[in-house]
């Protein structure tokens, strides 16, 4: 059983900074005590698709561990208590050890790079749009936190690294990697190293849960909650697309015994439990996670993946190409993203597309819903293409500019059109980022997507 699956923590009261530090001392390990001799044989015995998949997944781990090793110091500076500073210092040591572990594996087993820098360069072609966006934002956060030690900024920083990158991106993948190689017993040193990495990451995530629970329930709780929701809205579009396999080849996960839906569902379930433990459930964050909380996790995973494949989510360079069923998933997200409490009375919004099925959303506090087809009476109507609407609504495009250029035509009372800006939380435009090396990224403007 993986470290993540074995975790039985149910309450933030079970987590203390003293215990987290003690566990670091008690579970210290050496990246150089591992003997990769048998692993080289095991690697050669993998199929071509298994090796390609491993390169894809392990590259994300290696690059990420190095980036955090280089950039975690501002977290130590900004931590408000000595106990937190001491723990974060241990975490920086952990991340360096993880990077050394992956560097050794790449060099001694895969045969990629004689130095850490050469190994990192080897990983870059494997890092997709979602990964570059998430880590590019983390690298920007290092600079922001260095200049701003406020509690809301610290809450954002802990959210981005401990809850998004470690808990949402890394831990679900670690869970399935551990299980596969523990059963196969073909790469024992790698299995032992990954179990150690996962144990460290579990401790880091526990720290993040503890810190955030104190911040959201503290004197600046409301400001911290607003800051958390802001960074979540900004980064979630990247996170949902990180595990998009190259060329949508589903064998990249099937070769290791699991489906994409498995890893998405496992991650969602685990992360939701952690946010509930913190005291700020995902469904209380405006516009962050617009899915029915009663919907089974597997169904939510299937819908997210279908929307990724159709171009509603993920790399904004994609052209939307959806069936009416998947289009319906998207409009369910639109409906769930709305805050109808700002309306004095119900409102109906109609979309008329030249290239897709028409949909309308009825906004009513307590019974908002999306429906395929035309409404009997609409308060506001948008006429456009489906792809253009996705550009302006979820990829950070400028709706006013689109209307001026005639790409979107809107009809309805001006005050109702203005009111929609309060009904739907605005997402910042996502950015495509070229990662130049650990701790450095160049951002080029691009529109983003949302889940």
Account of the protein in words:
The chain is an alpha+beta fold and 451 residues long. It is 59% helix and 8% strand. It has 18 helices and seven strands. The strands form two sheets. Strands 3-2-1-4-5 form a five-stranded mixed beta sheet, with helices on one face. Strands 6-7 form a two-stranded antiparallel sheet. Strand 6 (431-437) and strand 7 form a beta hairpin. Mean pLDDT is 89; it is low at 437-451.
The tally of strands reads 7
Find the structural class using helix and strand composition.
Answer: alpha+beta
- Helical content stands at 55-70%
Q: In angstroms, what is the radius of gyration? A: 23 Å
Order of helices and strands: HHHHHHHHHHHHHHHEEEEHHEHEE
Q: Could you give the order of strands across the largest sheet?
A: 3-2-1-4-5
Secondary-structure map with pairings?
Elements: H1 3-6, H2 17-26, H3 37-44, H4 48-71, H5 73-78, H6 82-110, H7 116-123, H8 129-147, H9 151-184, H10 188-216, H11 221-239, H12 251-254, H13 260-278, H14 297-310, H15 324-337, E1 347-353, E2 359-363, E3 369-372, E4 380-384, H16 386-393, H17 399-404, E5 409-412, H18 414-423, E6 431-437, E7 440-445
Parallel strand pairs: 1-4
Antiparallel strand pairs: 1-2, 2-3, 4-5, 6-7
């Amino acid at each position: 059983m993986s470290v993540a699956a074995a975790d039985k923590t149910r309450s933030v009261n079970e987590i203390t900074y003293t215990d987290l530090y003690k566990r670091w001392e008690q579970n210290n390990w050496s990246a150089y005590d591992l003997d990769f001799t048998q692993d080289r044989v095991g690697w050669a015995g993998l199929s071509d698709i298994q090796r390609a998949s491993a390169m894809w997944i392990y590259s994300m781990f290696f690059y990420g561990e190095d980036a955090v090793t280089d950039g975690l110091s501002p977290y130590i500076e900004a931590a408000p208590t000595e106990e937190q500073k001491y723990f974060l210092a241990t975490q920086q040591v952990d991340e360096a050890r993880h990077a050394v572990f992956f560097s050794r594996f790449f060099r001694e087993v895969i045969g990629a790079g004689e130095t850490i820098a050469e190994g990192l360069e080897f990983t870059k072609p494997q890092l997709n749009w979602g990964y570059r966006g998430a880590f590019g934002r983390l690298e920007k956060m290092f600079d922001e936190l260095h200049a701003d030690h406020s509690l809301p900024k610290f809450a954002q920083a802990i959210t981005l690294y401990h809850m998004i990158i470690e808990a949402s991106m890394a831990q679900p993948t670690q869970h399935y990697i551990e299980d596969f190689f523990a059963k196969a017993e073909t790469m024992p040193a790698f299995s032992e190293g990954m179990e150690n990495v996962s144990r460290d990451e579990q401790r880091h995530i526990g720290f993040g849960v503890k810190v955030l629970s104190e911040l959201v329930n503290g004197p600046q709780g409301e400001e911290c909650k607003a800051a958390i929701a802001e960074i979540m809205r900004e980064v979630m579009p990247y996170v949902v697309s990180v595990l998009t396999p190259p060329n949508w080849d589903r064998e990249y996960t099937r070769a290791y015994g699991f489906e994409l839906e498995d890893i998405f569902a496992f991650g969602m379930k685990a992360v939701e439990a952690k946010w509930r433990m913190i005291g700020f459930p995902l469904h209380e964050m405006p516009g962050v996670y617009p899915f029915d909380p009663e919907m089974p996790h597997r169904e939510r995973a299937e819908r997210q993946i279908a929307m990724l494949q159709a171009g509603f989510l993920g790399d904004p360079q994609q052209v939307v190409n959806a069936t009416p069923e998947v289009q319906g998933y998207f409009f369910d997200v639109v409906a769930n993203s709305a805050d109808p409490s700002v309306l004095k009375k119900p409102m109906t919004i109609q979309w008329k597309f030249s290239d897709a099925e028409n949909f309308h959303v009825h906004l009513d506090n307590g019974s908002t819903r999306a429906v395929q087809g035309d409404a009997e009476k609409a308060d506001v109507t948008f006429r456009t293409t489906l792809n253009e609407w996705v550009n302006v609504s979820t990829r950070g495009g400028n709706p006013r500019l689109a209307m001026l250029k005639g790409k979107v035509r809107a009809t309805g009372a001006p005050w109702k059109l203005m009111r929609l800006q309060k009904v739907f939380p605005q997402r910042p435009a996502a950015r495509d980022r070229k990662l130049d090396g650990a701790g450095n990224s160049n951002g080029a403007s691009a529109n983003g997507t949302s889940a």
